[in-house]
Structure formats: C-alpha cells, structure tokens
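Quick start: read one record
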Amino acid sequence: MSEIEKLERESNEVWASRLGSIAANQLKGVKDEQAIREITLKYWEPIRTAVSSDNSLKRPRTAFAKAINEKFPNSSKPKPGYYHTKPRGKAPHWEHLALWYATSNRDRWDIIGDEARVAYKASFEQPEQTQQTEQATQPEQTTLQPEATATIPSLETMNIAQLELDTDTQKVVEDAIAYSGMSLAEFVRKACQVYAKTVTGKVKMADEDLTPVLTAELMSEKYKTHPGRADELTRRAIYALEVHNNNCTERNQKWHINQTAIQTLTGSKPATIKKILENYQTRLDDHNTKHGLNPYDNRKPGIKIDEAIKLVELVPDGLSVL
C-alpha cells in the first residue's frame, strides 16, 4: 500500500494530518515554488479528490495545514519559499507556499508566482466604483453589438413576465418592487449586486479557519450563516462527548454519540449534521463500542444532554480539539 492511501479506519482528518507531515518533511530545504507545488499537490490532491464537499474538507485542510505550519511557521518578514497574505481578521504576514496550494480551490493550483497571485487576488477585490468607471469609458461596446443580438430585450424594456418566475415568486417580487419604489431594471440590478456579494462572501468565508474562534461566539448570531460553522461545532461536540464519557466511572453517566446528540449540542440542522457525521462514523462507532453504549443510553429521565454537556465550558475554543 502506498503511503498516500488512506488507511483502514483512518478518519479524513487523521489521514490529512499524516500526509501533511510527510509533505512537510519532503519540503525541508526546498525553495523553488514549482517544486513546492509538486510536492504539496502530490499529498494534498488525493485528499481534495476523496473529500468532495467543501464543508467536509474544512477539518482535513486545517489538519494538513497545521502539519505544514509546525515545520514552517508564519513569518513577519519575507522568506524564500513563502508568500505574502492578508487573512481577514489577522495581521498581514508571510506563509509557506505549500499553504497556497493546499486549498479546496483548484483554480489556485495554477496560480504560480507573486505577480500572478497579486493579479488573482485583485480580480476578487476590484472596487465597485472602478468597475463602473470602466463601464462608463466603454459605451461603444453597446452600440457595436452584432445585429443578431438586437432581438434580445434590454433590461430597461423587459417586463417581469419575461423573467419566467413561478407565480408565487413573481407576486413576491412585484410586491417588493412596489415597496422599494424602484423600477424593474433597478430592482434586478440591485438583486444581482446583493446576491453576488453574498455568494462571493461565502466563498471567502469557506477558507476561514474557525479553530481559534470561541465556542460561545461560534454559537452566536454572528456566525449563524457561516458555511463552516456546523462542521466546526460538530468537531467540538464530538470531542466534548468523548472527554465526558472517558472521564465517567458509571455507564448511566455516559452519552451515546449520535446525530440527535450532536444536533442538540450544536443547534445545527438534522440534514447538515447527518452529512457531516459520515466522515466521523468509524470514530463514533469505535467510541460507542468501547463504552458499550447505544441510543437508549441517552434516555435519562430528568436530564437533558445539553444540560449535562456544557459545550461552551468543556470546549471553549477549537485549538485543543483532537
């Protein structure tokens, strides 16, 4: 069996940590970016391919990056084999180039060199005013379109029926337009602008490491819509239950770790937790078997699991979670 292959009963997170350590050892003394890229992707790409969901990939990516960081800590000054980055909420610094390629975003794998990275980042950060200025300086493009496109109605002349909305949605949109006082064209432009910002915002948040965020804060409204929130809270809830059970002396004090238990502790949606737990099933089965637990063990009269397991107190943040 190749060292890259996932071992039997090895979780995705442990697998990623192991491959990250191997990659880090092979990266010692390597300064050439192309060589760093090849070594990193040799061990990272199999993980990215095996874990198709971006949310499920979050924890393995953090484990892989942590193994790299342990060998190549961030720097406050430029260093060979490092690149400059400005993570949201953190001070600008230099990170090892392996972290540029160890990402769920495959597009970044082909962005090589500092100049290419600057241009790539700028494509996501172009100010709205600049975009409008560019559009204003190119009015000829509108009048020079081929005649074949003349049959396509412009936004200014379009009516709501041409949007082909279902009946209920069309009624909601009509009411919203009436309340806003906008024209249909203005409303569509605004809706596109808002939705585009929402989508790109979530893409950027997907790469944000929630490990250092306090559990109390992660459970607040501030992170309610964060795409990685449920994954991180699930990881912490599993750890809290494991620690609790391992420290108990009597079986009636222990809790069977399952979907319902995690839902209650995290407040996440059932479908979301069900999907996330697919990556932890072997770990949960092993733990429950070790303690001889089954779902009926969670029927404790007068005791609710979220009262017995104080997630915020047991796991104040994710830095020490295994």
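Residues 256 and 288 are 6 Å apart (CA to CA).
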